[in-house]
Amino acid sequence: MSSPSSTKPDTSAAAPLTGDGGTAAPAGKVKLPPVVWLLGAIAFIMGTSEFVVSGLLPQISGTLGVSISSAGMLITAFAVGMMIGAPVMSIATQRLPRRSALVAALLVFAAGHVVSALSSNLGLALVGRVAAALGNGTFWAVGAVVATAAAGPAASTRATGVMVGGITLANIVGVPLGTAAGQLGGWQTPFWMLAAFAVAAAVVVARRVPADTTRADSSLRAETAALKHPRLWLVYLATALIQAGIMGAYSYVAPLLTERAHLATAVVPLAMLGFGIGALAGTTVGGRLGDRRPYTTLIPATAVTAVILGAITLWATNSVVAVVLVVLLGAAGFANNPIVVGEVVHIAGAGRSLPMALATSAFQVGIATGSWIGGIALTSSLGLKGPSLVGFAFALAALLPLGLLAASHRKTESARS
Asked: How many C-beta atoms lie closer than 10 Å to residue 150's C-beta?
């Protein structure tokens, strides 16, 4: 499919997708440079930070003296910071030395976690979360360019896969371990750990990432021209709605499991581990099935996500059923991620950083909206059923833009044949 600038799409855009939206490795084995694995490790840190709060809401609310739904604003604040930070920093860092931008991003990220850990009230904790999110947005705006440039054209898709794989691994390992650490040593413990890891990563980046003052190959005009395709905005809308559906429920997984399903607090990290494993399975299967038939995979996966959220609303009072449904939510919900990211590449054209940054923003819009409205529902008369019911409504709404995209896709394919 041609990009809005009338250039032919890069053939790599049609390569099979992996995990969280990267494309499959090329046929020839190409050894990735160490800097790519370093950036993948940093992505693991960033991903852990974003989602670890979900498992610590009861502890945070108790320490700060606010309700659980108010503490959930820490999730929303991070998402809003990412939503704004990714596209803004994609533009702002176009002419900056990439190594310097990465170091600054990590230090801002670390400082945000220190501020949150030292907070005695919710307002200051929110400031810290926004600062950390801006650092995260800067990392993604610059890191993807550094990784693909270091790997070269023959392995650029594998390099991207390593970075986004760090987020998936964070859901499986980092978030459960961070939740457990927060339960044992206080909710501030994972914040201090993440700040320390970020500072250490900044030192390694300063020593290992080559100095580079090269400007981006793509001009701002070309980047903005790629945004003129209407289908691209339908993909962004569908992405936001799907994420709002998942995170509307998952943001409040701790009270769901402990108060509604009557599980012990110590079991929550294990259930979150199950969610992460489900997410890894979902992204893998979605990437493979959705490569050639994106919408015949996306629409059923989204419909199944809605069914699971409805089942959580109705039947999550049993501990075993609740855990199984949480795992299935990760699998069905995350099956969509590599496909929507792949559609952004197909529509906007390969190598466009601003459309990809806005895809990141679309994910964060969904996370922020879902966690915010889910929190409101939690404090309403719906109680513990509220967040999953909100998620159910968002997942159903996502089927509308997906249906329009599928119809447009079929029309395009028919015109080509």
From this structure: 20
Q: Which amino acid is at 180?
A: A
Which pLDDT tens digit goes with each residue over 169-218? Answer: 887 889 889 999 999 999 999 999 999 999 999 999 999 888 764 444 55
Give the other-Cβ count within 10 Å of 16's Cβ. Answer: 17
CB 176 within 8 A of CB 190: no
Of 332, 343, 323, 344, the C-alpha closest to 391 is 332
Enumerate helices (H) and strands (E) in the chain, giving the number of each: 18, 0
Tokens of 406: 């599928």
The secondary structure of 305-318 as a DSSP string is HHHHHHHHHHHTTS
Per-position b or e across 297-329, b if 16+ CB within 10 A of its CB? bbbebbbbbbebbbbbbeebeebeebbbbbbbb
Count CA atoms within 13 Å of residue 59 on its CB side: 23
Cβ–Cβ under 8 Å, residues 343 and 371 = no
Q: What are 92-124's pLDDT values in tens digits?
A: 777 778 888 899 999 999 999 999 999 999 999
